[in-house]
Design a protein that fits this description.
InterPro entries: Homing_endonucl, Sporu_reg_WhiA_N_dom, Sporulation_regulator_WhiA, Sporulation_regulator_WhiA_C, WhiA_LAGLIDADG_dom
Organism: Megamonas hypermegale
Strand order of the largest sheet: 1-2-4-3
CATH class of the largest domain: Alpha Beta
Function: Involved in cell division and chromosome segregation.
Distance between the termini: 74 Å
Oligomer: single chain
CATH topology of the largest domain: Endonuclease I-creI
Largest sheet: 4 strands, antiparallel
GO molecular function, one term: DNA binding
Number of strands: 8
Helix content: 55-70%
Radius of gyration: 34 Å
Number of helices: 11
Order of helices and strands: HHEEHEEHHEEHEEHHHHH
Structural class: alpha+beta
CATH architecture of the largest domain: Roll
Protein name: Probable cell division protein WhiA
CATH superfamily of the largest domain: Homing endonucleases
């Protein structure tokens, strides 16, 4: 995960929905994204959630405590022994009636304590809940590239129904999201800078970070525009050089057939200037000869026609 994505997540963990329905929606998405369910001999269910982001671990802990104050939780840290690998943080709500209760409220368990995949649609009727749900999904399994690079924001999940729900929520909020699958996971993605900015703003990213994204995007657009202009100029210069090369070849053919001295004065003068200035454009030749560009073009065309006639006449001998 890029450092920019970490910045975004570290900011989003401080966003708390005002209503309990939004908190439940965010918690449900977080659990759908990265939780596993456990149970004990009494058929009480528990929750295990593992993340490499300490702030996300704190957020899920806070949401669990807010939803069920008496729920018993514990947090453990596993330090990585491998270079450049992040620590992992495990949030555990031990199997208990309280944990089973929140799982039922979230739709993970049926009334008969049976695991229920569900779709979470029952508490996603309002836009505020949809936004909170997307925030939870992003915290649990989302990432966004730095704006200096390729524009790309994504949610990654192994659950197809959950992936389709995220996709549909994006569309309901008028975000042009797409979906693809890769190595047994489903990826919901945004690739347009405006859409990425809009989503980040919706789920609660502060203005400072959005402005950083916007500034980087504007700088990137300016660089791209400059590159396009340079490429265009380079292409135009190459076309000018190629055209000049063909024109000089035609003049040399005319000289080889001893027809150069018989050229009309203006055409001969143009041929001489072209030979002396092989890098010049037609507009520059016109300026050198103090005439119009169309006049230069007409004379160059005469040279071309004559050279073609001479080559054809030689070929028919």
């Amino acid at each position: 995960m890029s450092s920019f994505a970490s910045q975004v997540k570290n900011e989003l963990v401080h966003v708390l929905g005002d209503q309990i329905c939004c908190k439940m929606a965010e918690l449900a998405a977080l659990l759908r994204m990265g939780a596993t369910i456990s149970f004990n001999s009494k058929h009480d269910f528990g929750i295990n959630f593992v993340t490499e982001n300490a702030a996300v671990a704190r957020k899920i802990l806070s949401l669990l405590k807010t939803s069920v104050p008496k729920i018993h939780t514990e947090v453990t840290v596993r330090r990585s022994r491998r270079l450049r690998k992040h620590n992992s943080y495990s949030v555990r709500a031990i199997p208990s009636p309280e944990t089973s209760s929140i799982l039922k409220q979230l739709g993970f368990l049926s009334a008969k304590n049976l695991l229920d995949a569900g779709t979470d649609r029952n508490f996603l009727q309002k836009d505020c809940c949809k936004i909170a749900y997307l925030r939870g999904a992003f915290l649990g399994g989302g990432s966004v590239n730095r704006p200096e690079g390729q524009y790309h924001l994504e949610f990654v999940t192994g659950n197809y129904n959950f992936a389709r729900l995220i996709l549909n929520l994006c569309h309901e909020l008028y975000l042009p999201a797409g979906i693809t699958d890769r190595k047994k996971v489903y990826i919901i993605y945004l690739k347009e800078s405006e859409a990425i900015l809009e989503l980040l703003g919706l789920i609660g990213v502060e203005d400072d970070l959005l402005q950083e994204f916007e500034s980087a995007r504007n700088l990137k657009e300016i660089r791209n525009q400059v590159n396009r202009l340079i490429n265009c100029e380079t292409a135009n210069l190459q076309r000018t050089i190629n055209a000049a090369g063909r024109q000089i070849d035609n003049i040399k053919i005319i000289q080889q057939y001893d027809k150069y001295d018989n050229l009309p004065k203006a055409v001969k003068q143009t041929a001489q200037v072209r030979m002396n200035h092989p890098e010049a454009s037609l507009a520059e030749l016109a300026e050198l000869l103090n005439c119009s560009r169309s006049a230069i073009n007409h004379r160059i065309r005469k040279l071309e026609v004559l050279a073609e006639q001479l080559k054809k006449g030689d070929a028919t001998r």
